[in-house]
Amino acid sequence: MNKVVSGPQEALKGIEDGMTLMLGGFGLCGIPENSIAELVKLGVKNLTCISNNAGVDDFGLGLLLQKRQIRKMISSYVGENDLFERLMLSGEMEVDLIPQGSLAERCRAGGAGIPAFFTPAGYGTEVAEGKEVRVFNGKPHILESALTADFAIVKAWKGDYLGNLIYKGTARNFNPMMAMAGKITIAEVEELVEPGELDPNFIHTPGIFVNRIFQGEKFEKRIEQRTVRPRA
Amino acid sequence: MLNKNQIAQRIAQELKDGYYVNLGIGIPTLVANYIPEGIEVEFQSENGILGMGPFPFDGDEDADLINAGKQTITARAGAVFFDSATSFAMIRGQHVQLTVLGAMEVSDTGDIANWKIPGKMVKGMGGAMDLVASAENIIVAMMHANRAGESKLLKKCSLPITGVGCVKRVVTDLAVLDITPEGFKLIERAPGVSVEEIKNATEGRLVIEGEIPEMRF
Predict the structure, then answer these.
(1) Neighbours of A117 (CB within 10 A)
(2) Of A29, A70, A76, A214, which sits 20 to 30 A from B110 (CA to CA)?
(3) Which candidate, A130, A180, A115, places its Cα nearest to that of A154?
(4) What ipTM was reported for this prediction?
(5) pTM (2 d.p.)
(6) Which fold has domain A8-104+146-215?
(7) A101 and B91: CB-CB below 8 Å?
(8) Residue A224's closest CA among A4, A30, A12?
(9) Which residues of B touch A92 (CB under 8 A)?
(10) How is chain A split into domains, by residue range?
(11) In this predicted model, what pLDDT tens digit does every residue of A76-95 receive, in sequence order?
């Protein structure tokens, strides 16, 4: 049950051109930055990436956009990235924009063995085009399908050899659902500990969802919008 | 005419003790600065926090603690973090009592457009579609006219919509208006703004009944 691998190189073994990847994070918060750097090195292409955002021009998934490694993005919000907007408007990259709650639930459903579900989000909008509509409790809902991925790559604060994970602050976001929805799930953590060191009462992602785990060498943890108030 | 802070201040009057509130990006964020005395509310940010506090002191910012606008924030005593699916369970499940959002256009039937300008601006809807589809009480905070001086309160939205018939109330620099089956019902005027000015600035159906009071701060 020891799922520890030596580093991102070993963790990403098996990722090939044309695969579908899920990548955790909200903005630059809670993104698997060591694995993203390795994906750039690997040079894999024609990827379909499922991630709430697409990073910024020079960090996060923006690094894969620069190298044109992504064929299709499935996201909810892609502002703050000029290159992304250019690639999308010119048609160089396919983009599927999904309401954030539907994206989270589609990943959760994918991991939980639920093939589809009805949600009110997006009814009457472009998002509903081509989707089945059904009325529940007098309110129209649209059918959304589950999402899964060849590899899910998540970032956690602490993890143990068995793949049990704990996230920190708002860096949790999409990571737990994506961890469930990968055929192979890779977790990069800030701190790798021995089994027993994490209190079982406070584990967020049970290790059963995780296949490979490693401690990231360095986390830059870039802040997108630094907002502060002056000290009194 | 109100400035953006005053719009936020007027919306803050809608807060009630015990409310869980989701504030969108822009003017809505400012509402948190004007919580009325003597009431307690909790702010939810859809990236995964309940009990959001003010911006951190200079030097205390934490990359793992942000709001949905990706700004560094703090967590109040009793705050809680959760994943995105749980966050939208709170929203979809109607556990959040008030949602305040910005908009590019609102129709007199309560449709809202705030996520896309075809061919120009395509940033995505983020959590807006989930919020407007499920929130029981949605207040829109926006300017009455766009930069070109055209009304943003329309018979029908010209931009791709975010949600159908969901907006309950609109607070602009000129007025407070409720969405009713007859259209925008004028509730209050901004100080010094006449009913005539509001009429001229509103493209959608406008209902004016009796004397319209000025907003009070």
Answers:
(1) 16
(2) A76
(3) A180
(4) 0.96
(5) 0.96
(6) Glutaconate Coenzyme A-transferase (3.40.1080)
(7) yes
(8) A30
(9) none
(10) 8-104+146-215
(11) 998 878 888 889 888 899 99
